[in-house]
Amino acid sequence: MAAPRRGKPPRHWIDLTDAERTDAVADLGMARFRRGQLDRHLFDHLSTESAEWTDISRGDREVLAENFVPPLLTRVRDQQADAGTTVKTLWRLFDGSLVESVLMRYGVPGLRASGRGRERATVCISSQAGCGMACPFCATGQGGLQRNLSTAEILLQVVDAARRLRDGEIPGGSGRVNNIVFMGMGEPMANYAAVLAATRAITSPSPRGLGISARGVTISTVGLVPRIQKLATEGLPVTLAVSLHAPDDELRDELCPINTRWKVAEVVDAAHGYFAATGRRVSIEYALIRDVNDQAWRADALADVLRRDGHGWVHVNLIPLNPTPGSKWTASRRADEQEFVRRLEARGVQVTVRDTRGREIDGACGQLAAVDRASS
Ligand code: SAH
Fold this sequence. Notes:
Mean pLDDT: 95
Bound molecules: S-adenosyl-L-homocysteine
Oligomer: single chain
Strand order of the largest sheet: 1-2-3-4-7-8-9-10-11-12
Helix content: 25-40%
């Protein structure tokens, strides 16, 4: 198979700044109000189909679509689980790169498969095609990095999920996106500018953005310390998640190779700094791997590492290891998981065990590999 062509995706309206959008419309010789109309179609109406922009003359519609709304994401395949309330989508990008996103709807009345709790929907999105961080237990890390996604390629994953929910395509009637997690393929902090621009577009009020609360957005990182520090200065109260997976450098060097660059103590300092700057409680992600990082003494060590005037600033999310092809590791025994939880709680650390939603469609944490089975 030919190697994908490297390069930037075609320019999209979503990639332009405010001023650039205004200028772009003027450069085409169109009336100024076309600018606001296009914003509204994309961000309010979630419409990337120019045929639907009926308040714009046919001629202008076509010119706008050709210049600013290229089809960047092509749906290759949808896979469903949980009675259709979990949907993993495989997307093909303009250069043949493949990425995945996962839509999860919870608490649909009368649909037990969607889980308990209040009705809500989360979209898990990718920020890169592949990933360069090479964590050995993660499927995405095994194929290396292909390229960064553009702002539009990131945002359009959210736009598609929001449109499907609104249009009632997911069981439970018309709905909306409450949470967006940068926990799909890639290391968001390694594609900082596009991730930040996409986050601003997600959180900007209508019609310049999707109008979703920053509190509903989680950016997850393997621990790129300078970028965590930078994010703390952006004035965007998003939730930071840090994938720690080990409290000691010896093991973390193996589980997260970037640890050879930024050590556990530096990563935890940066995470606490994020809390201090934003007041947002930080999530620590910890995949429980049988006999690797799930020993009782490591639970104690984790609690110690996270202690900063108490533990109120942090929340630990334990993820039972999800299976990935070729990995020698498996999830912890139930008893070891329970003991790990008990020890954290005994030391005052807030902890939850994440559900393994989407596992049977390889849509759970660390399972996104974006393989097009038809062509592989
Ligand atoms: N690169 C970012 C974003 C990915 S988020 C980061 O590392 O945070 C995906 C989460 O799933 C990360 O916490 C990752 O460490 C975790 N993960 C990866 N492989 C996993 C697996 N096989 N089982 C459970 N969690 C896994």
